Amino acid sequence: MKKSAWLPAVIAPVVVAGAVAAPVIANAAADPIAGKDPSAAAVLASVASSRDAQYSGQLAQTSDLGLPELPSGSGGSSLEGDASDVLDLLTASHTARVYVDGADRQRFQLTQQLAEQDVVRNGSDVWTWDSKERKAVHVTLPAGSDVPQTGTTTPADAAERAIAAITPSTRVSDPTAVRVAGHAAWQVTLTPRSSDTLVGTVRLAVDQQTGLPLRVTVTAAGQQDPAFQVGFTSLDYGAPAARLFDFTPPSGAEVSTQDLSERGGHHGGTGHDGATHRGAEPAVTGSGWDTVVEFPAGTAGRPTADTDATALLDQLTKSVDGGRAVQTSLVSVYLTDDGRVLAGAVPVSALVAAAK
């Protein structure tokens, strides 16, 4: 499935991979958070109660990872998912509309100049649509699937990843009162105890009334300004119109399918040419803030023989033992000579060691 032009799925889970120790959130779900001075445990536990929330709003994402801002379209399209698009979302700001009707119905809509990208989930059916490429992908999820609902990164997605990755490697602050998109929220700051991660802090702002994460801000170690932030700029509660979760590919669109309905099986699918496509699950090593995600050879974007794509890759990466790598302020990516891709909120040296 082509990623929406938002924080890439390869990076988002890594950025907020660490979280809080189990005792911090255990048995806290019943604690109130709308009153005075709730515990951090109660604030974090309240996020789970927002999974059935109904709302619509506008999101803003900013990323400042220390990468150069390259002209749009540089590098061609020979890197899977278009390398220039990935660079753009890592170096520029973006806004998107999001519509949510509980855990099984969402629509994420990113509008760019003369183009639109959508991710629509309605029960077990997920559609992605790219108007520029005129390509649609239909994915069938397992019944009751807990996989990411859209493959995008919203405050709820990022906050749940942080809370779910339970390790004892995090210092948790007392909540402070803030306002986000006109709503009162409690903000909790997570600070890694590990000295090996590039992450400095993760700040989660959670709606005092509903438990919905309203903003997630990540700073790099040793820096004050956010390296990544995603949050609501406007938010209205209530069920969005049902028609927003119905999607029919436009006439003439290129449509491919992926059937993931059988748990534990290969993620296979067919393209418009009838060919079967298979994916492989990434391997995860380490824990908490030091987690490293490894994609097997052939399952992540790699350059072809295209000269422009190769030149772009060489410009962004440096030669290291066994491949090429780039280290930003918050995350590192290592492309091995044998075709694997490793990523983590750790120095490049940690990725090289994990690849051996």
Strand content: 35-45%
From the helix content, strand content and strand pairing, which structural class follows? Answer: mainly beta
Unreliable residue runs: 1-30, 71-84, 147-151, 264-278
Amount of helix: 10-25%
Query: How would you describe the shape?
Result: globular
Spatial extent as radius of gyration: 20 Å
- Describe the sheet with the most strands: 15 strands, mixed
Q: How are the SSEs ordered, and which strands pair?
A:
Elements: H1 12-15, H2 22-25, H3 40-46, E1 54-63, H4 83-91, E2 94-101, E3 105-112, E4 115-122, E5 125-130, E6 135-140, H5 155-164, E7 170-172, E8 176-180, E9 183-192, E10 199-207, E11 213-220, E12 226-237, E13 254-259, E14 267-270, E15 276-279, E16 283-285, E17 292-295, H6 307-316, E18 318-320, E19 323-327, E20 332-336, E21 341-344, H7 348-355
Parallel strand pairs: 6-13
Antiparallel strand pairs: 1-2, 1-12, 2-3, 3-4, 4-5, 5-6, 7-9, 8-9, 9-10, 10-11, 11-12, 13-14, 14-15, 16-17, 17-21, 18-19, 19-20, 20-21
Written account of the structure:
- The structure is a single chain.
- The chain is mainly beta and 356 residues long.
- Helices cover 15% and strands 37% of the residues.
- It has helices at 12-15, 22-25, 40-46, 83-91, 155-164, 307-316, 348-355, and strands at residues 54-63, 94-101, 105-112, 115-122, 125-130, 135-140, 170-172, 176-180, 183-192, 199-207, 213-220, 226-237, 254-259, 267-270, 276-279, 283-285, 292-295, 318-320, 323-327, 332-336, 341-344.
- It has a 15-stranded mixed β-sheet that branches.
- The chain is globular.
- 45% of the residues are buried.
